[in-house]
Specification:
Blueprint lengths: L12 E7 L3 E6 L3 H9 L6 E5 L4 E5 L8 E11 L13 E2 L2 E2 L4 E6 L3 H9 L6 E5 L4 E5 L9 E2 L3 E5 L23 E6 L3 H9 L6 E4 L5 E5 L36 E6 L3 H9 L6 E5 L4 E5 L10
Antiparallel strand pairs: 1-5, 2-4, 3-4, 3-5, 6-12, 7-11, 8-10, 9-10, 9-12, 13-15, 14-15, 16-18, 17-18
């Protein structure tokens, strides 16, 4: 009942590019302008690919199709809305770093700036890697690729959004503690702050461990690792322990143990529980100051 018959703007067209997948219909169109009008008239259509050889117009429900652009002679594709402004990669580009995995598609492109334009045209794209040796651009569906950056000479990578602000949360660091497991990847770093930045650049990273002896930074997908007593450098709770009224003196919460460690007192035991992702309860044994972190309230069977 309502339609858009305004002048067709072709400034978003990408010649020699196909947006494969995410099709919602196809029809013959006399030219690309007619294809634009078909897309306007179709609810859910946000892009299309037009085959100049047989005049088929393929309507799409995702910007850039299902996985992004591929080079294809004789096809012109277009998002109904796009950004053609100049892209600056100076802030978020990571030189000599690869973001492996989470690939959507690869396409030839001379520069990282051109790669960024393809990513911007693709709905699912949030990052890319550009390989200088053959000018291949790999579009990514996850920040930092599947599991974070890898140092690779000749490959430059970029998240479309990044955090380059000063590292200010080092008060969350737990010196001389490891939180094992839940590893995404490890990478050699110069210092603790660089490890924080690698974690920021990786979509699933919420914590890390750094080996001060060799500089290896282990990125983690869980606060405190899979079971351990230390948190991510992205989050911590350093507030005073004020819930000791929840202590049940003379009772044990058996089972459901995550980890146990020697601590100074009940307050330190509480802090370690705070720092461990699945910890919801604890048992503190006064005879040897051993703290048992628990994954279930009351342990596995309740107090005794």
């Amino acid at each position: 009942m309502e339609c858009d018959r305004s002048e067709v703007d072709l400034s978003c067209q990408r010649e020699g590019v196909n947006f494969a997948g995410a099709d919602i219909g196809n029809m013959i169109a006399v030219d690309i302008e007619a294809c634009v009008i078909f897309c306007r008239d179709t609810e859910g259509c946000v892009s299309f690919s037009y085959n100049e050889v047989n005049n088929y117009c393929y309507l799409k429900n995702m910007r850039g199709g299902a996985r992004g652009p591929t080079a294809y002679v004789g096809i012109t594709s277009m998002n109904m809305e796009c950004q053609n402004s100049r892209i600056s990669t100076a802030e978020c580009l990571r030189e000599d770093q690869n973001f492996p995995g989470a690939d959507l598609v690869s396409i030839k492109e001379d520069t990282p700036e051109g790669c960024a334009k393809h990513c911007r045209d693709t709905e699912a794209c949030v990052a890319f890697s550009h390989r200088e040796s053959d000018n291949l651009c790999f579009l990514k569906s996850k920040r930092g690729g599947a599991s974070g950056p890898v140092l690779t000479v000749g490959v430059n990578s970029m998240n479309m959004e990044c955090d380059n602000s000063a590292v200010t949360n080092l008060d969350c660091a737990r010196e001389d503690w490891n939180f094992p497991g839940a590893d995404l990847r490890y990478i050699q770093t110069d210092d603790l702050e660089e490890c924080v930045r690698y974690c920021r650049d990786t979509e699933e990273c919420v914590a890390f461990s750094i080996n001060n002896a060799n500089g290896y930074c282990y990125l983690k997908r869980m606060r405190g690792g899979s079971v351990g007593p230390t948190p991510a450098a992205n989050y911590c709770d350093n507030s005073d322990v004020d819930n000791l009224d929840c202590i049940r003196e003379g009772f044990n919460f058996p089972g459901a143990d995550l980890r146990n460690l020697i601590v100074a007192d009940e307050r330190e035991c509480v802090k370690h529980c705070r720092d461990t992702q699945d910890c919801v309860a604890l048992t503190f044994r006064e005879s040897d100051n051993r703290c048992y972190l628990k994954s279930k309230q009351g342990g596995s069977v309740g107090p005794y």
